[in-house]
Every structure is written in C-alpha cells, then in structure tokens.
Amino acid sequence: MRIARIRIENFRSFEILDIALPRICALVGANNSGKSNLLLAIKRVLGRSWISADSFSVDDIHGKDPFKDILIQLTLDSPISYQRFKYSGVAEVHGLSFHYTTYKVGDREGERRLEQACLNSKGKRLQVPKSAFKKGQKPAFEPLTRIPSEVQAAIPVIHIGTNRALRHHLPSSQYSLLRVMLESINDDFNSEGNTTTVRANNGEMVEMRRSERFQRFMDAAMELLYTDEFWNLENRIKKHALRQLGFDPEVDNEKLDLHFSPFSSMDFYRALGLRIKEDGFTIDATELGDGFQNALVIAILRAYEESKKKGAVFLVEEPEMFLHPQMQRSLHKSLMEIGNTNQVIYTTHSPHFVNVPEFHNVLMVRRERGVTSATSSSLSYDKAREERLIKEFDPERNELFFASRVLLVEGDTEKLALPEYARRLGHDLNGSNSTIVEVGGKRNLLEFARIVSSFGVPVGVLYDTDIMDTTVANVAEEINAQLDGLTAECDLIRVWSFNGNYEVCLRETMGQVEHQAMCQKYAGFGKAVKARLIAADGTSPIPSVVEEALAWLAGRSTCDPGV
Fold it and tell me: What angle do CA 367, 12, 398 make, to 5 degrees?
C-alpha cells in the first residue's frame, strides 16, 4: 500500500500541485522551497491525531487568503477494503480527501468547516449503506463523510522530523516508529497462540495465554491499590455522575457501573522509555546529547528495517543530520531497503541520498514568487537505462540534483580547470548554485544532459570534437552530431565544443611557444592537475569557448535559455 498520487490546492506554499509519488521519493530543493509542506500535507490526511476545521488556520492557506479553500487529496496504488456493517458488503477506498472550505448557505454561511472523504476509483465520494441490510428491503446508500479509523490504520504514517529529540520517537508519541512496532508486538502478545507455562494450584505446569496472565497481574495490582481513600474517590465520582444524569444515587446505584481500569498491555508498551547504563550509572536516554539521541533514532529505524515490516508511509526530514558521509551512505541503503515494502518520502540536501541511476525517485521542489512547484523527470524509466547509468556511478555526480544550472564536461581535465577560470573571471559558481559535473566520457554527455533537462534545469554541454581512433570515426561523428542536436531537442540545453580537444584549444589560444613554456613550467604533474595549474596562472589567456560557457553557467550570458 502506498500513495500513488497527491493533489494539493492552496495549502501553504502550494497553489496547485498534482503529481505522482514513487515508492521511494527524494524531495530536493533549496531551503524554504516547500519540501516540508508536502510532507505536512500527507501527515494532515493520514495522521492519527483528531483533525477538525480548527486544525487549520489562515496561515495554512496559500497567500493567507481567507476566501480560498484548501484541498489535499491522496490516491492510493491499491484499494483499502471497508465494511460499514457486518453484512453490508465491502466497499473499496481508492483515495482520501481533506477539503477545508466554508458553509455556502444557512445560518453558518461563510463559517469554516472540514470535509473529509473516502474516494472511489473515479475520485468521487464513496457511497456506503445507510444501515445494515435487511431481507426484503432495498438497500439505501449515502456518501461516507468521514475517514474511518480502520481506513487510516491501514496506512500507518511514521514521521521523523528534523527535531531528533528522542522523546518524539518513544512509544508515547503518536507518529513514533517504536509505537508502530510495539503495536504489532502487542497484537502478537494478545493472540490466542501466544502462551506461557505457569504452575497451577495443584502444582502442575499448564499453558496459559500471556494476555490472561497479564490480566491476572493487573487484577492483583488493582486489589492492592484499592485503599479506602481510593475506593471513596471512585464512589464520589460515581455518585455525582448519577446526579448529573438525573438519577438518585441511593436508589439507582446499579444503573451506572463506573470504576477505574488498570493499564492494558498496550498502555504499558506506550509508557516504555529508553535508559542507558554505563559504568554503573543509569540515565534516561532523553537526557543525552543531540548526537547520541539521533543515533538512537537511526538505530530504531534500522531495527524496523530488519523486522521486514511493510505497508507504512515514512515521512523523513533531512536523514543526513548529525551523520558523517560514510554513515549517510549506510543510512541511505537502509531507507532503500525499507522502501522495498514501505513507502519512503524524504527531504534531503545531501548527494549521498540521491543517485543519478535512480533519477526517477527524485522530485525537484522549487519556490518562485511565493509559489512551490515539484517536478519529476519527464524521461521514461527503464531498467536498461538504470543499468547503463550504474556503470558510471559516482557520488560527486549526484550534485547535479541540487544545482540551479549544470555544465557537463567529459572528464577530470575540464572539471579541474574550469573552476579556476571561473574564479579568475569573477564568477561565484557556488553563490549562483551552479555546478560543473564530469560524466566520464563523451558517450555519457547525451544521457546526463537529458536527465538534467528533464527536471526543468538549464544544462550546458562542453565537449571535444576530436576523433582519436579512425576505426570508430563514423561513430564519433554521429555522437558529435547528436550533441549539437541537443539544443533543438530542448530549449534548456546549450552546447559548446572545443575545436579538437581541450589541449588543442588551449594551444591555439596561447600560441605554440607560450603553451610549451607553460607545460614546462608545470612539468612533473599529471594531465588534469597540470590543466588546473595553467588555468589558475594569471598569465595564461582564457579560451573564448570556456569564457562563454562559464558566463552562461554563472547566469551572465546575454543569450540564456535558462533565464
């Protein structure tokens, strides 16, 4: 079970959004772009807390416009079965909807109200029987005007926010992962087959259900608690309750059976905390430092992964918090494992939590003029394409998902040299959120350019036109023609080429004598490092094609399809 699609209207920074959500979904975008608002919209619909019109405010409405309505609608990938009455047949819930609107007529006209609805396969309100079916009577139906608890329970939501304080992740918290796991444990605890061996009064060992034995302990505890003061308190409450209901406590005492009840097994699980014992001292884990508490939250997440539970929706904000790069990569792997049987939607600023081969799992979130949009790749996904990209996997290349514009180059020579030229030209590439990505050869430029532009991100391509091997001359010429044709394929793409290759272009720009002198000056260094040192040398001229490409990358080009 997962959310296949979400539609949002006028909620916070979203004016309108209608987009498919993959099973594993990475939300990337700048700070304050609206990534967390998307998670909040899902949490509002699927959350366990009681939601009413009072749960919303004018601050939740896009533009804080009191005349606008909010709509949050989720479409599920498979229906949830719902039966209102025992013999009334089963209805299928294909989606859920929250509509924060107003009364249109009557005494309450203009007053805010919240319409909750279960949707059928056509996106309309689900019709359910008004009453249990009776023989000889034609069944009557009505719209289901709420989201039943059993429907919400079928899609448990687990929210891990940026506040990693452990108290938010203990079983007492309604969105806690521990709570979900312990609810499953509690179901097993109360099952008929879960028994334990006890000694009977005659001394024999017999099997007894754990839940029954637990209840006996609770009854014994209550018997111990029933002091005179406790009994008097219970009876005073009962006496006053009878009077409030119009009864005589002396005559109608038996009409109201009111008494205190002990903990259920789930109450015990919810009350559990975590304590750390070290060097003979025991301390509440919630009193430890932020880093340690975050480690425990991640440990709970990994325990869930190992339990192979399924069917939940995870909403995770910035999983990379407090983690060094190796642990980020490890946690990303855990999230992918959890995503095999659950849905995982997370926000991130880390290239360790996105992969170019898994570009179909990324939604780019942008905010322009106060309005948030989310974009998925327009490229079709297929396993063959992913396998080709896996061969070129490099974590540094994942940075392209976080850039406002990208310049793609063939290899390390250009990757090292171009930033030095940008510095000399006064282009602050980091400040303009631009990046240079090497793709491991000319053949990969086409695929990477199409992936980047498919997210609506301006992308430049700088390549070598040379043909080093005459046996594949036709192939190389075909690739050059395809690269030049990218500009016609998508108006977000710009293409530049070196006449020959980078070395030839540099020699032509500097002149043979000066180029040879520069090479001698930095002799002893490898090709890529030598190129960087020459580029950084203030006495070396800058090739015009490089200057033009970098001006575009920095957003200073006079002919810029990205503007």
Answer: 35
Helices (H), 105-227: 149-153, 177-189, 210-225
* Residue that is written with structure tokens 């990757």 in the block: 415
Within 10 Å of residue 8's Cβ, how many Cβ atoms?
26
Neighbours of 84 (CB within 10 A): 17
Residues of the chain with pLDDT under 50: 470, 561-563
Structure tokens at 42: 């899902």
Residue 372, helix vs strand vs coil: strand
Give the pair of three-digit tokens for residue 321: 């918090």
Strands 3-11 and 281-284: what pairing?
A: unpaired
Residue 412 β-bridge partners: none
Beta bridge pairs of residue 375:
364
Phi/psi at 113 (5° precision): -145, 165
Whether the CB-CB separation of 354 and 320 falls below 8 Å is answered with no
* CB atoms inside a 10 Å sphere around CB 471: 7
d(CA 62, CA 483): 42
Q: Rounded to two decimals, what is the model's pTM?
A: 0.86
Q: Is 545 exposed, middle or buried (0-12, 13-18, 19+ CB in 10 A)?
A: middle
Rounded CA gap, 88 and 82, in Å? 10
Beta carbons of 361 and 2 less than 8 angstroms apart: no
Q: Which of 446, 444, 456, 439 is nearest to 401 (CA)?
A: 456
- Whose CA is closest to 457, among 499, 492, 507? 492
Secondary structure of residue 158 in the 3-state scheme = strand
**What is the pLDDT at residue 563?**
42
Q: Is the dihedral of CA 22, 28, 33, 37 positive or negative?
A: positive
- In sequence order, what DSSP letters do the residues of 385-434 get, joined into one string? HHHHHHTT--GGGGGGGG-SEEEEESSHHHHHHHHHHHHHTT--TTTTTE
Return the pLDDT at 562: 46
pLDDT the model gives residue 111 = 92
Count of other CB atoms within 10 angstroms of residue 115: 16
With the CA atoms of 132, 136, 142 and 146 taken in that order, what torsion angle do they form, in degrees rounded to the nearest 10?
10
pLDDT value at position 48?
A: 66
Q: Are strands 205-209 and 195-199 parallel, antiparallel or unpaired?
A: antiparallel
Contact 126, 119 (CB under 8 A): yes
Contact between 19 and 38 (Cβ < 8 Å): no
Structure tokens at 123: 């996106």
| Angstrom distance (rounded) from CA 449 to CA 427 | 22
pLDDT at 203: 86
Distances (CA, A) of 41 to 61, 76, 149, 186, 514: 12, 15, 18, 30, 62
* Cβ pair 69, 9 in contact under 8 A: yes
Positive/negative CA dihedral, 451, 453, 457, 459? positive
